[in-house]
Amino acid sequence: MRMVEWTHIPGLAPYQETLAAMEARAEAIARGEADEAIWLLEHPPLYTAGTSARAEDLVQPGRFPVHPVGRGGQYTYHGPGQRVIYTMLDVKARGADVRCFVRALENWVIATLAEFNVKGEVRPGRVGVWVVRPDRPPGPDGSPAEDKIAAIGIKLRRWISFHGISINVEPDLSHFAGIVPCGIRDHGVTSLVDLGLPVTMADLDAALMRTFEPSFAEGPACRREQA
Question: How many angstroms separate the Cα of 49 from the Cα of each of 90, 193, 224?
């Protein structure tokens, strides 16, 4: 059985220092000197720019610090009230299939949201996890309004993943207005509290721990689907 060390980092974790510590832990895992790890934390308000970030998607450049990062994806926001989950996991030991690993991350978020009776969904061509908003007017084409509730962005080095997931619990949603989140202009952003659910960080953390192992146990089924 793999050992996964769960760590809760209190307060608002400074971004650059946390990133450096995460990369060091991933290197230690790759060398066989440390167990896999999941860190649960919050950051002060900031924007991150992934490897596909476009300059025009930074709408308010001076609003918060901007940190270029090596993970995939475009601009994302981190801040208080958002649970950031850094996942330092051995993808090779978990099947050596990056697409199935990302699918497992998505399934993990969806299963966690289901603990609060929220139906999270993924969409082709759109990164992250989304919720349908029947309380909002439909789009110009008649499609239901949808908001993003979780972002996913990872990087692999020597088969060890780092970066990971963010789930909106109760962030200041106006802070997302400084960017085009993940390059998507046609949909909004929501949170568990915005959906009317009085969920705390502790509630979310407990749900994440309950749903982790089942969500990552479906790797063989994922590979059969791709065959």
Answer: 25, 26, 34
- C-alpha span between 173 and 19 (Å, rounded): 24
At residue 4 the predicted structure's pLDDT band, cuts being 50, 70 and 90, is: very high
* Three-state secondary-structure class, residue 181: helix
Q: Compute the radius of gyration of the chain from its Cα atoms.
A: 17
Q: Do residues 57 and 183 lie in contact, with contact meaning Cβ atoms separated by under 8 Å?
A: yes
Q: What confidence tens digit (pLDDT) does each residue in 129-181 have?
A: 999 999 888 878 888 899 999 999 899 999 999 999 999 999 999 999 999 88
Which phi and psi (to 5°) does residue 31 adopt?
Answer: -80, -5
Please tell me the distance from the alpha carbon of residue 165 to that of residue 151, in angstroms, as a whole number.
Answer: 6
Contact 76, 43 (CB under 8 A): no
Pair 48, 75: CB distance under 8 Å: yes
Strand partners, 87: 38
Distances from the Cα of 158 to the Cα of 26, 27, 39, angstroms: 9, 8, 20
Alpha helices (H) in the chain, listed in sequence order = 15-30, 98-114, 201-216, 219-226
- 100 forms beta bridges with none
pLDDT in tens, 91-124: 999 989 999 999 999 999 999 999 999 999 999 8
Please report the pLDDT score of residue 98 as a whole number: 94
Return the structure tokens found at 149.
């509730």
Q: Which residues are catalytic?
A: 182
